Amino acid sequence: MNPKASARAAAIAGHLSMRNASSEVKDTSILGLGNPMASMAVERSKASFPIRELTYFLDGGKEMTAVKERIMTELERDPVFQNVDFYDLTKEQLRERTMSKIARLIHYITSEREEISHLRLSLVGLIDMSLLTRTGVHYALFFGSLRGSASPKQFSYWISQGAAEMKGMVGCFCMTELGHGSNVAGLETTATFDERTDEFIIHTPHTAATKWWIGGAAHTATHTVCFARLIVKGKDYGVKSFVVPLRDPKTYDLKPGVSIGDIGKKMGRDGIDNGWVQFSYVRIPRQFMLMKHSKVDRHGNVTQPPLEQLAYGALVVGRVSMVADSAQMSKRFVTIALRYAAVRRQFTSKKGEVETKILDYALHQRRLLPLLAQTFAMQFSSDEMSAMHRALTRKIDSTDPGDRTAMAIVIEELKEVFTTSAGLKAFTTWACAQTIDQTRQACGGHGYSAYSGFGQAYNDWVVQCTWEGDNNILALSAGRGLVQRYLEVQRGTKAPPQTEYLNNLARLKSAQAGSRQIDSVAVLSEAWEAVAAAVVSKAGESFIALRKKGLTADEAFEETSQQRFLAARIHTQCFLVLKFFDRISSSGPQIQPVLTDLSYLYAIWSIENDAGLFLQAEFFTSKQIDEIRELCNLYCRKVREQAVPITDAFNLSDFFINSAIGRYDGNVYENYFTQVKRQNPSKPQAPYFENVIKPFVHRAAEVEVDGEELDEDEP
C-alpha cells in the first residue's frame, strides 16, 4: 500500500477504534459498575412496607392474587406461549402463533367465569398484544355486539351456531371503512330491505365504503357484525348492525358477493390478520339484522327505540378495557426502566469509587417516578370506571324500556359514563404511549434494542390512540358533554358525581390555597376541582356567547373545540387525582404511607405541568408554584427509596416483563448478552457476503493521485 494511504487508513482506524472491555475485564466491579445483582438486593432491602400487602390491594384481595398467580403459572409453563424468540418473529410466524394461542385459550374462556377470563386476557395482553386483540375481536366486538344488540331469540340462535365457543364460527367486526372511521354515523355501506324476499341486501357502493382494518377478516373470520345504513322503502334510517356470513365454515370459500383481501404489514400487532371487505349485493335473511333496539318486520315496518342512545352503550366496553390496559402496560415498562436505573451506574465524583446509580440522579428521578405514580392513578381510575360501567349495565338490563321516566334516568347515567370513558380512554392511552417512549429513552442506548421490549411494545400500543375512537375526537366528544353539563347546571339541574364540582362554581371560583399546607388531600383535591370548574365554565360561557351571536349549536361547538379539548383533559386529570385519593382511604395502615407519597407526587407533578392554569384560576400564587416544584422534588426523593419494592408489588414475572434489561435479578449485562448470543448465533460469513460484501471489498482499486504532484512549485 502507498505509505500515504497507509497513514490515512491508520488515522481512520484510530478514530473508529473501540476497545472490547468485556474481553479485558471480567469483573464489572473493577470498571466502577459495582455488582448489579447486589445493587438490586440493596434496593429491595429498603422496603418500608409489606410488598405482598400492596400486591393484594392492587389485585383486589388475597384470593384474586392467588387466581392471578395460577393463571400466570399456566401461561408461563405452556410451550404454546413461550416468548423467548418473540422479538425476532416474522409477520407470518406471528399470525400462525397467534392462532395457535387462541386455540389454547378457548378452553379457558369457555370454562371460566367471565371475571376470570377478563383477568386471563389482561395478562395475555402483556405478553402478546396481537393475541389480546385477535381474541377481543371475536369476544368483545363480535360476540359483544350479539349480546348487546341482538334480541334474546337472536342471541340464543347465534349461541347455538357456536358463537360463544368459536366453534364453527369465527367472528370479526366490520365497522370502519376506508373513507370513514370516527364518524360512525357517516358510514356508507348499505343494507337495503327487499320486502319481496324478506332479505337485506348488503352492498359496498364505492371504494371508500370498503370495510378496512377489519381484524381477522384476511384469513380467519367466517362471520361479521357489519355496520350499514338501513334502507327501507327508500328511506335511510341510519347505521344499524347486521350479521353477515363471509366464508363457508367447512371449506373456507368466500360467500357469493363477498370480496376479501389482506391489508398487509402494519406498524405493529402483526399477529392480527387485518383485512378489507367489500360486499356486492350480498343477501342475508331479515332476521340477521340485530334487533334488540331497532326492528324491521316482514312488511318493512321499522320500529326505532325510544332512546336510541342505548344502541351505543356497547362502545363503552372497549373504552373501559383500554383504560385498564393502559395501567397494565405502564406497569411493565416503569418496572423495566426502574430496575435498570437501580443497577445501571454512570459517572462518579471521585476517582476510584463505584459509579453512581442513574436512579440517584435527580433528573432521572423526575423522568421516571411521576410515571410510576401515574400508573397507580390509571389503575384506580380504571377500577372506578369498571364499577360504574357494571352498575350501569345492570340498570339498563333491569329497566323496562316502556318506562320513559326510568329510561330517561338511565340515559343520563349513560351520558355520564360515555363522557368519562371517552376522556379516560383518550388521555390514558396517550399517557401509556408516552410512558413507553419515555422509559425507553431513560434506558439510554440499550433501550433501543428489540430485546429490551420497548420498540415492539410501542409499535403495538399506539394503535390504541386511534382505534375505537380517535383520541382527539373522543376528547372533543367528552368536552362537548362537559359543556352540555355546564349548561344544564346553569338551568338549575344538579350535576352528577363525576362533575360535582360544577355544583360549587361560586365557591370554587374564589377558592385559594392561602396559607394551608399544599401537600394535603384537601388542598390538592380542591385545587384540581377549582381548575376543572374554571376551564369547563370558560368553555361553556364561550359557547353561550357564540350562540348569542347567531351561530348554530354545531358551529358554536366547533368554534370552542380547543376549549372543549382542554376541558376534557383537565376534567380527566381531576378524575384521576380524586379517584387516587379516594382509593387510598380504603388501604391498610402498612401500605397507606407509600400510596400517599405516590398520590401526592402524581397530583403535584400534574399541577406543575399545568401551572399556568392554576395561576390563571388564582388558586396558587407564583411563589406557591415554586414551592410545588420543590415538593415535586421532595416526593420524587421519597418515592425513589421505595421504587423497586413498589414495582415488585406489581407481581409480574420475568416471563411477562420479557426484557433483557428488566429482569428481577438485576443481572442486566449477563442477561442481555446471553439473549443476544442465543438469538443471533455467530456465523463465519454474512448471508450476503458472496453477493455484496466480497465484490465490494475486492473491487478494482481506484487510481491514486499523489497530491505532491499537483502542488504548485514554490518560488
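That was protein one. Protein two is written in the same sequence-then-structure order:
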Amino acid sequence: MGSWALLWPPLLFTGLLVRPPGTMAQAQYCSVNKDIFEVEENTNVTEPLVDIHVPEGQEVTLGALSTPFAFRIQGNQLFLNVTPDYEEKSLLEAQLLCQSGGTLVTQLRVFVSVLDVNDNAPEFPFKTKEIRVEEDTKVNSTVIPETQLQAEDRDKDDILFYTLQEMTAGASDYFSLVSVNRPALRLDRPLDFYERPNMTFWLLVRDTPGENVEPSHTATATLVLNVVPADLRPPWFLPCTFSDGYVCIQAQYHGAVPTGHILPSPLVLRPGPIYAEDGDRGINQPIIYSIFRGNVNGTFIIHPDSGNLTVARSVPSPMTFLLLVKGQQADLARYSVTQVTVEAVAAAGSPPRFPQRLYRGTVARGAGAGVVVKDAAAPSQPLRIQAQDPEFSDLNSAITYRITNHSHFRMEGEVVLTTTTLAQAGAFYAEVEAHNTVTSGTATTVIEIQVSEQEPPSTGGGPSEDKRFSVVDMAALGGVLGALLLLALLGLAVLVHKHYGPRLKCCSGKAPEPQPQGFDNQAFLPDHKANWAPVPSPTHDPKPAEAPMPAEPAPPGPASPGGAPEPPAAARAGGSPTAVRSILTKERRPEGGYKAVWFGEDIGTEADVVVLNAPTLDVDGASDSGSGDEGEGAGRGGGPYDAPGGDDSYI
C-alpha cells in the first residue's frame, strides 16, 4: 500500500500535455495504453513494458526524472533495463518526453512497482555476545533487552521467530525468551555462582513460522552468560562444615598457656590457627582480625592480617579466657565472629624431652666449615635435632640448642653445621643440650656423626655441580667400548672355529657331509660309484720292533688322523700284511665314520668289528694325513694295550 500511495500524485498528471498556445486543437500527442506495472523483485523482464504512440514528426526520449539506468527506449517501446530488487528500490519511474524540432510537445510518466519476495536471510548484529549477570539478580527480571538481541531482515514484511537452545546442560532452567517474536532474555530462577558460574546458549532466528514453509531462512548466534558473584555470604572461620550451599558452621578454637610465662611465639590452637576466608570465594575479600571482647587486661594480641594470637603479658594464676574474635572483610561489607578459649594452666616446669637418645648423621670427609650434617637414615635431608616440652607444645619454639663437648660442630636452630674442615674420616660423638628459655628446663642427647670418604648419596632431582664428563662424552665412550667389544667377540669366534670347529661339528649329533680330502674312509662310495677293492693294509718296518713297555692307559679319544687303526689280529701277531683284511660296511655311525669288519684265515667263528670314528681336526695330523708314517698312525690310533670301551668298539 505504501508504493501505491506514492503513485497518486503522478497519476493526476499522467495525461498532462504540454501544448504550444493556440495549437491545442490541431496538435497530436504521445501516449501509452498503460502507465503502472507490478514486477516481482529478482525477475528478469525481457519483453517490452509498453508501446509508445509517437506522432509523425516527433521523437520520444527518457527525461532526467527517470530512475537512473532502470529503463531504455528501443524504437517506440519502453524496456526495463535492470533486474529489480525491492530492498534497493521499491518503485521505478520512467519519464517520457516527446519533442518536435526540439520543442517539448508531450510529457508522460510510467511507474514500475517492485513486489517484495522472501529472498534474504535474517542477520544478527553479532556472532557471540558475552555478558555479565550479577548473582543476586532478581527472578523474572530482563537480563538482556530485546533491542540487543534482535536480528535484522532486509525483507521488509518478514516476521521473525526466535528460539533459545541450551549448550550448557541445565542452563534452560535459568533463562528463557519473553516470547517467540520478542527475543528479550529473562531470568527464571535464582543464580548460584558456585553451582553454575557460566552458561552458554544458542540463539536461532527464522523468517518463517516453521521449517516446512518455503522459502525459509535462518541465522544463529551464541550467548555466553558469566555469573558475577555477589557479596551474599560473610567470612567463615576455618575449618567449617557446610549445612547447605550458603551457610557454613564455623570453627571455634582452643589453646592453653602456662601461668607466669610469656610465650615467644604465637599460640598453638586446636583444631588449627585462627583463619577465615570470604564466604564469597569469587570475591575473596581480604579478612581483618580483631579481638572485641574477653581480652582481660590486654593479655593477648591478634595480628590483624594473619590472625596469629600471641601473649602480651603473663597470667599470674590459672584462669580461662573466652575471646570473641571478629573477622571482617576489608571492604567492611560483612563480618563474622568466633570464640577462642584459652586456659592459663600452672606449669610444673618439666624439662624438655628428646624423642631419641641417639641421633645419627653423616658428612663427607674434607667438608669445610658451615656444611650441613645430613641425616644418616635419609642422606638427602639435613639432620634435625628437636626436643619437645611435655606440658605445653607452645613452649617448643622457646627451646634453643647447643653442642657442649665438641668444637668441630655447632647448632644453628635445629640443624648441625661443621665449624672446621674435617680432614680425617671416622665417627665423632657430640652432646646436644636443649634449653627452654621460658621454664629454664634443660635436656641432652647424643649425636653420632660419621665422616665418610665420599659425599653421601643424594636423592634430589637437581643436577650434580661436580660433573667431570658430560652426557655426550659418556655416550661417545660407550660407543667406542661397544665397538671394541664387538671386534673382540668376532676375533674369539674366528679362533674357536679354526681350532675347535670340526670337534664341535662331530659332537653336534649330525653326520658331516663327505669332503674330498676328509678323514672318512674313501673306499666307501655311493652305490653308483662302488669300489669294493680292499684298502691296502698298513705296512710295517721289517725290523722286529722292540716290545714296548706297558704304558698307562690313555683316556679314550677319537682316532688320530694320521692313518687307519691297525687290525687287532695283526697288532697282536705282528704278522704279514695279508694276515687280515678289512671290509667297510654301509652302516654309518651317527658320530661320523663307518663300521669296518676285519677278517683273516685264522679267524674262526668270532670276528672282530672295528668302528672307525671321524678323526679330530689337528693341524699336524691334517698336514700328514695323506703321507704320514703308517706305523705311527697305527700306534696313535690304538694298539694291543688299549682297552676296549674307548671310541673304537671291539666286538
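The mean pLDDT is 77. Keep this in mind for the problem set.
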